[in-house]
Every structure is written in structure tokens, then in C-alpha cells.
Amino acid sequence: MHDARTLLDLGEVAVHSLSRRGYTLDLTTIEDLFTRRNSSIKSADELISASRIGPGSAF
């Protein structure tokens, strides 16, 4: 399995390397999915944080 950030950083080099092995890499889709993943992680972290503080908390 490849790291999405590494593939995005390599850009066209990764596209070319993988195409020589018979694979197709769509950087636009990878970027979109990576952004959505990070957004989801951030939202989940915020929800977890909010649930720990909760109503009636001393904080």
C-alpha cells in the first residue's frame, strides 16, 4: 500500500512509475479523497474533544 501524501508529493513521477507497471493513478481523485479524509479526522477529533468537556463540566 502506498502513502497518499507521498504519491501526491511525487506527482507525475508517481504517475509515470506506476503506469510502467500497468497501473493508473488519478492524482485529482487521490487529492480529493486525502482532503476529505483529513477533514473527517479533524471533525471526529473535535467531536471527541467536545464529548469529553460536555455540559456541566468544570472547564
Automatic annotation (TrEMBL):
Superkingdom of this protein's organism: Bacteria
Organism for this UniProt entry: Prauserella endophytica
Designated name of the protein: Uncharacterized protein
